[in-house]
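User: Fold this; tokens only.

Assistant: Input:
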Amino acid sequence: MNEEATTRRSRITPEREAELYGAVLDLLREVGYDALTMDAVAARTRSSKATLYRQWGGKAELVVRAMRSQKPGGLAGIDTGSLRGDLHAIAGREDDCAMERNAALMRALAMAVHMNDDLCQAFKELLVEPEMEEFRRMIRRAVDRGEIRPDNPALDYLVHMLVGAFATRTLIDDLPPTRAFLTSYIDAVVLPALGVPPS
């Protein structure tokens, strides 16, 4: 985040920020991204619209930061000593209820991301790129340990495999993603594709 954005966002307490993010996500679930307005957020959170724009710049950044606030910490703290352990730890970061709520939010945003350039840019900069960098570090550790060949063609698709399983579980099976589903998917699909024994 650039210095201007840091300064812009430094005037709000963490508790107030969490309250605002919760309200934004509630509105997003209720009305969807396109119908969500800064006026509605201001009214729901008893804030001025000017304050919201000063803190977040606009709806896209506010919504993506609210989404990011629901993620259970970054991947940087995950290092179990094995790729299987790391991937299982990622799958276990959220309980099934939180995972279901976040999957519903992702579905609500999926179309909007493709239709709105500001949202797409914020989504990539604030959510996708930081996660991709952490996954690259995780993969480098696995390669350095000798778990994965550095030329394995599936390496470029690790995130695609994981996000695909999470995003399509409801579409294909009419069931929410769960820890049990994701860990079994990791063992049955992801690790074999990377040439890693599942146990």
